[in-house]
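Batch manifest line 274
LIGAND: S-adenosylmethionine
JOB: complex structure
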Amino acid sequence: MSGKLYIIATPIGNLEDITLRALRILKEVDLIAAEDTRQTLKLLNHFEITKPLISYHRHNEEVKSNLLIDKLINGENIALVSDAGTPGICDPGEEVIKKAIEENIEVIPIPGACALINALIASGLDTKEFEFLGFLPLNKKLRKEKLREIQNSSKTIILYEAPHKMKTTLEDFKDILGDRKVVLARELTKIHEEFIRGDINYLLNKIDNIKGEMILIIEGAEKSQNREENELNSLSLEQHYEYYEKQGLDKKEIIKKIAKDRNVNKNEIYMKFI
Ligand code: SAM
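JOB STATUS: finished
ARTIFACT:
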């Protein structure tokens, strides 16, 4: 009979955030597949668990998932853990989980810490509908597309970001979010846990030399505003221009507004109307 694959969430800072069930299963399995074996060893030592470890990370996911599947087929029970939080969420895991399902191996999630959920619930922003986008793409074109998606989304948006990139990311949002509320959640469950709540300009003033692990949560665009923007963006440039002209705005103001609606540089619009 095949073994079982347990996907175990581990703490994102505070070691007390491991569940009793997670500890029991870590003790019971035959093998633990870990993103970084040294990191997981610290956790196991803390809880006095001794267990064989195998590394399973982004760069060996393909090869190691085949090895893990063989072991599972041979009846071994395996726990999959990442460095922190829930495996598979911006962490390795997907590959072996998909293969296990294909092989009819039982996949069992063991719930626990997940940074995005904890950032969201304490953010004070709408939790009814939200969208987790992971890390923003580095590729300029894809990034621009994502920013546009965020600008138009009526859902609360959750992003992971590295500390040294947070300033650039906030700068990218500066012109497109207006006075929408944003929350930066930092060092969750750790000594320096902090929530900075305000608008983009407020956050930008607060984050010089900011350190630690962090998450950005963005309030969704008002549904009506969102609808209006979508309608405007489906117009031709000329119709878009006329729309604002009818409101009595002058050329300079119109170009600025069109550029903002379409999230493009105002010079680009200006060139079309000279
Ligand atoms: N699998 C993890 C989870 O369940 O959330 C996420 C791993 S991802 C590689 C690491 C990112 O998660 C960090 O860059 C940060 O954005 C976020 N993160 C992880 N731990 C955090 C913490 N204690 N406080 C704030 N953000 C955290």
